[in-house]
Each structure stands twice: as structure tokens, then as C-alpha cells.
Amino acid sequence: MDALDLARWQFGITTVYHFIFVPLTIGLSFLVAGMQTAWVRTRDERYLRMTKFWGKLFLINFAMGVVTGIVQEFQFGMNWSDYSAFVGDIFGAPLAIEGLLAFFLESTFLGLWIFGWDRLPKKLHLATIWLAAVGTMLSAYFILAANSWMQHPVGYTINETTGRAELNDFGAVLTNSTAIGAFAHTITACFVTAGIFVVAISAWQLKRGKAGDVFRPSMRMALVTVLVASVGVIASGDLQARLMTEQQPMKMAAAEALWETSGPASFSLFTIGTLDGSEEVWSLRVPNVLSLMATGDWNGVVEGINDIQAQQERLHGPADYRPNIPVTYWTFRLMIGFGALMALLSVIGLWAFRGARTPRSRWFYRAAIAAIALPTLANSAGWIFTEMGRQPWAVFGIMTTQEGVSPTVSSGTVLTSLIVFTVLYGVLAAVDGLLMYRYAKAGPPDPQPHVSKADTEDQSLVFAY
Length: 465
What we know:
mainly alpha; two-stranded antiparallel sheet; 16 helices; disordered C terminus
């Protein structure tokens, strides 16, 4: 492989690895904030123990997300210097705000939350975790605004003298319809991710017969979160499908491996075809569904790959403007399939835990524990589809991926850094997994000894780490 292929592999690996931690951090921050709010309002010690237990796991995950995110951004200068030079005026603005404002907000107030348990008044201390959670959400928005500009560039002009893209409307970048749709879809997916994480660990502890007074309410809260957020994922995904059809029709056509323009267009649940995806051998299809997804019309016309390819050649010159069809086809379905399994689990779980019931059948606990992998699989498939489906463009319609790679970086240099990062990330994954396992297995802190109301008002409980 040449430097371009290796640089793409490196960026793909680091991005997918980093995104394992991001959704969990965002979603879990709000769940922990909700648990602490319940404690402050009710003085029910169960919620305090829940806050402390899930807060530890949240902090471990947050630290891993920070470390891997820094490495990811360094790659723009290392492997993609021509891209950075061309779009730095635009792409750098939301990333700079994310670093200076959003990350500063979340890290500062997270520090106050960690060390303020025995120093700050309860309500002020509660405000710190909420502000940290808001900071994680703001970070997500600014990063998604930068990424969405690559998907649907707006608010810029091309300087003919320098040959660079220059920002002329930052408001247009921040209010990009693609960014709004991606933000809604990503944030709801974050709540699903955190909810399934809590469900899986709660199921593990309940199966072991540990701390049912803490993990049963954790389970119910998480199941409701997954169900409500899944509805949001579906609604925002529907919006994104329409935007994608309008802005990147090739990506939508590739998601279905639709070679010829069709109206109405069916949606294939499963297809067997040639390795390059150019010919269908057998397919299980649902009539009209692709038309509804892409256009909002049951009988809508969806453009095919061949027609879009011809249009792109007329606009941009002779080249292959098709992404990897099998990758886009299957990642699109894996994303949807894993998401559907999580929504189904939440429905079954809420039925099993209705009222004062607690399921005794081992199959539910085993399924819930295994489900901890589903958010990572769904999120990874979704990002691979989003980024691979845009190919061959780094910035859609403006700059190809090949044009953005660093011209002076050799294949050997990229390969060396790829190997080093992969090994390092493997070590970090082992450390993270070990820490998560130890703290999850330890369970919540023991109940505090009974104290009088006067003592409770005069003293703060220490958050022991």
C-alpha cells in the first residue's frame, strides 16, 4: 500500500477507536448528573451510591477519550498537511472553539466535581457535573460542525490567489443542516450507548446477586433511557437520510447498492452479490422502503449509482466517484440492525422489570450482558458508513482524499506510526478494560452509617476514589 492507503487506515483506526469512548462519555455524564440530582432532591442514599459507582466508570472512560482524541487531531498535520493547508481557515475554527471553550468547560467543572464532594454545598456541587455534561455536548457539536462541513461545505469562498478555502460565514458553518442532523443523531445515540452500558453492568451485578437496591433502579433508569433515545435515533436518522439524498446522492445509492435509478425503490434486508457489489445474485427486499427513507414519498424516485457517476464526471471530470459499495452497503445495515437489537432489548427489559418484578430467567441477564458490545458495533458501523460513503472526497465536491494527503510523508513513515499507534492503543485498551472490570466488579460503596439530620446538614459526604 502507498502512503495514501496507509494514512487512510491510520485515520480510520484512530477515529473508530476514539469514538468507542466519546458516546459513552457524553451519555454517561448526563445519567450520572441525573442520579446525583435524584439524590439531592430525595436524600435517598441509593442515588448517592449510584452516583459514586457510575461516576467512577465515567471518569475512567473520560480520561481514555481525551488521550485518544489528542492523537486523532495530530494526524491532520502529520498525514494530511495538504488538506490542513487548504481548509485550515474553516476546519480549524470549530475545532479551536471546541478546545478553548467546550473542553475547558467540561474539564474544569469535572475537576470541581471530583474534588468538591466534601468542600462545596450540595446544590453547587451538583451544578458542576451538569456543566461538565453540557461541556461534553458542546464539544460534540463543534466537532460535528467541522465534520459536517466536509460532508456539505457551506460559508466559504475559494481564494484564487492562494488556492485555499476561506471562511466567510461562520454562522453558516455552525447552522449547517448536516451538522444539525448529525448532532441530533449522535447525541441520541450517545444516550443509547450509555444506557446499554448501564444495563449490561447492572445485569451482571444482579445476576451475581449484588447490591440489588442500587442496580435495580439503575437498570430501570437505563432501560427507559435506551427506549426513549432509540426513538430519537430513528427520527434523527430519518432526517439524515433525506439530507444525505439531497446533498450526497451517491452515498444513499451506495447504501442500497442501487445501480439504476428506480421509483419506487425497494430496500434490501439482505443481499448476496459479487465481491465488488456490481451485480446482485439474490436479495430479500421490502418494497418502497428506500423511496420512503430517501425522499419521504412512498413512490419517490431514487437516483442510481450509474446516473450519479455520469453527473459527477460532467461536473468534475473523468474519475471514479463511487465509494466502496460492499462496505457502504453492509455498514449501513449493521448500524440499523444493531440499533434495532438495542431498542428491542429495552422493550423486553422494561416488561421483565415492570412493577416490582425482577426476572429470574438467566437468558435475559446473559443477553443484557452481551449487549454491551452492541453500541460500539453500531457506532463504529455508522461512522465507517459516513466517512467511507463520502469517498473519494475529503471535502465533498471540492477536494479529493488523494489531494489532501501529505506529499512529503513516505509510506515507511506512515506504516511505522500506524504500527506504533496500533500497539499503543492495544495496551490502552487492555488497561481501560482492566480498570473498568475492577471498578465494575467492586460495586457501589457500602451504605453510610445513619446520622442525624443536623449532622447531615453540617457535613458533606466524601467521594472516595
